Amino acid sequence: MKLRSCLFLAAASVALAAAPAWTARRPRYGGTLRLEIGAAVASLDPDVEAATAEEAAAKWQIDSLIFDHRDADGEFAGAAGSGPFRVTTFEAGKRAMLAANEEFREGRPFVDSIEISMGRAAHERLVDLELSKVDLTEIAPQDARRAAEQGARVSASQPDELLAMVFVGGNAAASSSARTTSQAPGQAAGQALSLAIDRVAIVNFILQKTGEAAGGLLPQWSSGTAFLFPAAAPSAPDLAHAKELWKQIAPSGALVLGYDSADPLEQSVAERIVVNAKEAGMALRAQAMPGAGAGADKSRGAAGQATRVDVELVRWRMTSPLPAVALKDFLARIYSGPLAGVEAGAFPEAASPEDIYKQQRAVLSTYRVVPLVWLPQVYGLSARVRDWKAPGPGENWPLADVWLDAETPAQTGVQ
Amino acid sequence: MLRWRFAILFHNSRTLMRPSRGLPLRFQTALVVMFFVAVLSAASAQNSTPPPQQWNDAVSQLADKIAAAVRPPHSLTLDVIENNSSISPADAAALSRLLETELATRKIRVTQEDSPETIVYVKISEGVEGPSMTAEIRRRDDEDSKGQIAIVALQKRATTSSGDVGVSLILQRKFVFAQAEPILDFMGPDASDGPSPRLMVLDRDRVAYLRLDQRQWSLDSSVPVRSRFPPSRDPRGLIAKDDDGIRVHLPHDYCVGAGEGRMDVKCRPNVRTKPAVDVALGQSWPLMGGGPQKPSAGYASYRNYFDGPITFFGDVMTVLPAFYSAALMNDQKNAPWILAELDGKARLYDGLASATATFSGWGDNLVSVAADCDSAWLVLVTGAGDWMARDTLQIYRVADHQAATVGQPLEFSGPILALWPAEDGKSVRVVSRNLQTGLYEASIVSVSCGS
């Protein structure tokens, strides 16, 4: 509750800091929306596989603007240009221009066109936002507060992306322990780490309060029962218990925690976890791993296997706000990754809140998946963007509904 | 009798659901008193409608689960810790009483013991699918375990479908109806409908007739409106009533019906244009109540505004600019207009081709309204902001090219999407979107002459 309040207050202060002096309310037609993304999308053809997860996510968003709908299997169908926009220019990996589709089934978008600049680094996007060279761009959660303090308009979704730690395969140092415990060695190491990690500090210091500490596999706003999986800062008895567990398993060497070398947030969190582990007398070192591509799917731990890590950080985005749907997707990843070979309990067709709780409990009691924090999707907006709502899980950028205020408000933070 | 404990338990990971022993007795007592005061006042303020049947079933299920965990049946202490949901304190208290009753029927007595053999912590919380009630059952002889968890889903109370929402000294809002689908306009209910009032609701793709039955509006019949043109993303529509019957104006369609309670609306395409042509050639939309002879304007079917109408100031014909909404002082030939124009400013036209006054900071919806006790030109204006924010309705008195606010603005919990004059000229029809519930709400706002 406290953290949620902090997040709310932070979000509220962000909104207040940069609230433009609006002059009107009903949507206006016209204008070009300038969008900058970090990914370099090589092709918009849905059949061409993206090289990285970031590219795949961006491509999915752009395709949702140019295709009318998806098939039952989630793949885009029909002709390109049947959606709210059609592509007028495409330079692979660099730039794309989309024009409004006058005949779109659900009505013509308000903006005339969208100009997408690709492959822009995070700091370049922030600078462009400050200079009003861009109307919409993604911001890393850890940069949200700074951007807001510098006057940018910041919009954050509900926290819907789980940053978690998963134990990888059978090469764990912890698995080679000599002594016996009541638990499996990997399980004891997972529990010890889980007890030692200060999730609240990760949220407060690394994420600058843009996020929530995670104890379960679903956030409170979705399941309503996340409080049953507490995630408070470790107490003295917790640290003592962690030390005791660590002594019992006595691993042959330091555990290796892998993180995506291209992800600064994962790096910061991994380094923080190493500090927490040391405080609990545990030997853990962080190891950068090459970023996994969309095809490789870093969530499966493939990258971790290749570079001999025991534990790795993963980022899993909810596919739906509905707890049963989102959890089912997470469980599919878990039972094909960190819990591969473990028999999954049957997931009821119409899962009750208690079913959802039990499914989470079953996974978390193995300690092979250790939730850390929930991250929101954060966007920076120019002063003239109106009717923007940060998309929730499974939703696309609502660019057909966004419109541009021709009369730029005077009070807009940094222009 | 329930034993109420107030403990902040859930914020601490390692003391999950253990009762707090750190609060001073005086503070605990104060909290208990404050809670009961809150519950009693909430209960008196709440409607006295019984809880939904689903709650009975859910609490019964929860009692079954608790009973299964405390076999053989014995007494237990029930600890209702927190209600972090949209369920009111009065309803939360009712749920607790219900649980106590259900446990009693299972031969489990709720007692007040300092060191109970079994203690059940109950919490009401909420996720995207609605509220749930969680019970953690802890036995004294099993201190180290996490306890058994039982969870049941609770249905939200149905939204009130009719009644007054709020009263302002100057502006009075009467809530009529709410639904999940966008409402473009509505007509009714009429006092002449008697005990079974009817309501006509214009949706994006149909005209629906509703009937009030035991405080709930239910669909009586509907007439589909299927345009062959792409819809607008900011759909607008207007229902007008005059001596000849009902007229329904939509961007691409025009419907007529006899009215007088007959559900005989017939629709036909209204425009002969192609997409991207912003000229409406069909029926003009009336800008004042009272029929087609009143001032009207053509609607730009592929956009969300009106084309500039032609009017006369004296003998001079003037083409006014395009606008989102208009307020006319009266229905006379030379009447002044205020237009909410496409650049976000409202302008007054009262005799010249160019504006004679500009009003900034107004929203895009405005309309004239009359009051029995004030002969001045009164204009209702929505607030500035976009559709992600709350809205207001403010009354302005317009005289000598000046607009002065009168009274306090009337607050809405979301944007006002439509603001149309009623036939009597003394009230307006308002469609707004409640950002908390996501529902579209139809209301009638009138100017009251209260102090």
The span between the termini of chain A is: 35 Å
In helices, the fraction of residues of chain B equals: 10-25%
Mean pLDDT figure of chain A: 85
Please name the CATH topology of the largest domain in chain B.
Neuraminidase
Just name the CATH architecture of the largest domain in chain A: Roll
Q: Please list the strands of the largest sheet of chain A in the order they lie side by side.
A: 4-5-6-1-7-15-8
- Which range does the strand content of chain B fall in? 35-45%
Please give the largest β-sheet of chain A: 7 strands, mixed
Please state the structural category of chain A. Answer: alpha+beta
Shape label of chain B: elongated
Q: Strand arrangement, largest sheet of chain B?
A: 5-6-29-28-27
- CATH fold-level name of the largest domain in chain A: Dipeptide-binding Protein, domain 3
What is the domain total for the residues of chain A?
A: 2
- The whole-number mean of residue pLDDT values of chain B reads 79
Tag the structure with descriptive keywords:
heterodimer; A: 415 residues; alpha+beta; D-Maltodextrin-Binding Protein, domain 2; Dipeptide-binding Protein, domain 3; 7-stranded mixed sheet; 17 strands; 31% helix; globular; disordered N terminus; B: 451 residues; mainly beta; Rossmann fold; Neuraminidase; 2 domains; 5-stranded antiparallel sheet; 4-stranded mixed sheet; 3 helices; 29 strands; 12% helix; 39% strand
Textual characterization of the structure:
The complex is a heterodimer of chains A (415) and B (451). In chain A, strand 11, helix 9 (264-279) and strand 12 form a beta-alpha-beta unit. In chain A, helix 5 runs antiparallel to helix 8 and helix 11 packs parallel to helix 12. Chain A folds into two domains: 2-157 and 379-404, Periplasmic binding protein-like II (D-Maltodextrin-Binding Protein, domain 2, 3-Layer(aba) Sandwich); 161-375, Dipeptide-binding Protein, Domain 3 (Dipeptide-binding Protein, domain 3), CATH 3.10.105. By secondary structure, chain A is of the alpha+beta class. The longest helix of chain A has 16 residues, at 2-17. Chain A has helices spanning 2-17, 53-66, 122-130, 144-149, 185-196, 199-206, 220-223, 236-249, 264-279, 302-306, 323-335, 353-364, and strands at residues 32-36, 69-70, 76-77, 85-91, 95-100, 113-117, 136-139, 153-156, 161-167, 212-213, 255-260, 284-289, 311-317, 369-375, 378-381, 385-386, 403-404. In chain A, the strands form four sheets. In chain A, strands 4-5-6-1-7-15-8 form a seven-stranded mixed beta sheet. Chain A has twelve helices and 17 strands. Chain B has two domains: 13-153, Rossmann fold (3-Layer(aba) Sandwich); 163-447, Neuraminidase (6 Propeller), CATH 2.120.10. Chain B contains three helices and 29 strands. In chain B, a hairpin with an 8-residue loop joins strand 3 (130-139) and strand 4 (148-153). The relative contact order of chain B is 0.09. The interface between A and B is large, with 54 and 57 residues.
